[in-house]
Amino acid sequence: MNLEQQRQQEMQKEYHVLVEQIKPKTRVLRNCILAFLVGGFICLIGQIFLQIYLGQGMGEREAAAATATTMVFLGAFLTGLGIYDVIGKYGGAGSIVPITGFANSIVAPAMEFKREGFVFGVGARLFTIAGPVLVYGFLISALIGIIFYLIR
Amino acid sequence: MGSKVGQHTISFSQPPLLTAGATVVGPMEGQGPLGQTFDWILEDLLFGEQTWEKAESKMLQESAKLALKKRNLQSQDIDYFLAGDLLNQIISANYAARSLAIPFWGLFGACSTFVEAVLFGSILIDGGFAARVLVASSSHHNTAERQYRFPTEQGIQRPLSAQWTVTGSGALVLENTGEGPRVTMGTIGKVIDLGITDINNMGAAMAPAVADTLLTHFQDTGMNPDAYDLILTGDLGVIGGNAFRDLLAKRGYSLGDNYHDCGMLIYDLEKQDAHAGGSGCGCSAVVFSGLILRQLWEKQYRKILFAATGALMSATSIQQGESIPCIAHAAVIEFN
Predict the structure, then answer these.
(1) How confident is the model over B44-81, as pLDDT tens digits?
(2) Where in the sequence is the domain holding B80, given as residue range(s)?
(3) A12 near B CB under 8 A
(4) Number of structural domains in chain B
(5) Which chain A residues contact residue B146 at CB under 8 A?
(6) For residue A71, how many C-alpha atoms fall within 13 Å in the half-sphere facing its CB?
(7) Total structural domains in chain A?
(8) Structure ipTM
(9) Beta carbons of A128 and B156 less than 8 Å apart
(10) Which chain B residues are Cβ-neighbours of A104 within 8 angstroms?
(11) Phi, psi of A111, rounded to the nearest 5 degrees
């Protein structure tokens, strides 16, 4: 490494230290509490629906499927109304992790890319956000399946 | 003909005049502290169009037309139209130029485009290649978000260091005769990169570039920051602004109350949820063409140094892990 590169690296290091000092600290505790409350509230709504469906005489599996469908609908609906991104701003992971967040990550690109047409817009971009979750979700579940098969 | 001063500074012998300026902004910018200074505040982000991209191009076009109208000029009176924006292949400017029918130089300097256009226009006029030039640059929050970050309805939490892309377009008419503030000097910046890779902290990435350009300017001209009634940077925001102050202080130049940043001026940072401030090609364009131009006419300032900063990455280069190269150009504007 020559002297010029060395100087450049030192300058970069020095600057990174400076930026870290200036950067506002993320309010971790506040964000965690908000995520807990928002995520918990979404799950509470899910639980209410589950109880209603069970009360209507559905079996456990059917009621669970119906609840998931309802929550996906709610997430999609609130995204369409432009409300879910506001919830997300405060809720953070609390609104991303539940199934409503998954609905949001599908509907948001669908709305966004509708203007590029239904094939190259909606069709091609629908999973831009959810895609990685699906890909690695499938991959991990396959790996776990293999491990389970081997140790059983 | 102009001349070169020092290393990278140019001085105009017959400084071009900024005879008119016009601005079109979105609703959020209209509600901000500078709302009064804009010519046209849109009611919604679509501006009566089908897509945000069309809306942005229309804003650019309307701001250009409005600037011409203020001077009672027609398209055919203008020798060149210089414009740029943030979108891929600078489509907002290209499509606006299609309907304006003025010979067109498309420019890309990200958020530094506005000053780049002003300096380039001034060079054309002082060089005798043009009598009148129209310059403009625009940005739109939603077009920028979808190109660089996430779909707009995605429920994400923006980091506190993130800046909010300004929806707005500013245009200026530059002429070789008339009345108005004059562009007397310019310092052309180098591309500087101190290794910041965080797309949510663009101010910090850009600060070293503007520090470098201004240090060059001070060295070339022998001036110091006190020589200006106002030193205005484009869109460093809170973090970039502080880093910039620090970088200059380390080199022996301290900035006083005469330093402001367009990104911090345009929004009420307490109330408007813009986090670290505004950004985008439209940010410096509307703040300068609105507030600052008015203050120059009101003789609040006699001499200002206006440096716009641009982050020159693309969505692809960021995903590939490259750091953010940045540039800043500075113009000296005087009104005696």
Answers:
(1) 999 999 999 999 999 999 999 999 999 999 999 999 99
(2) 3-9+16-175
(3) yes
(4) 2
(5) 112
(6) 26
(7) 1
(8) 0.87
(9) no
(10) 153-155
(11) -65, -45
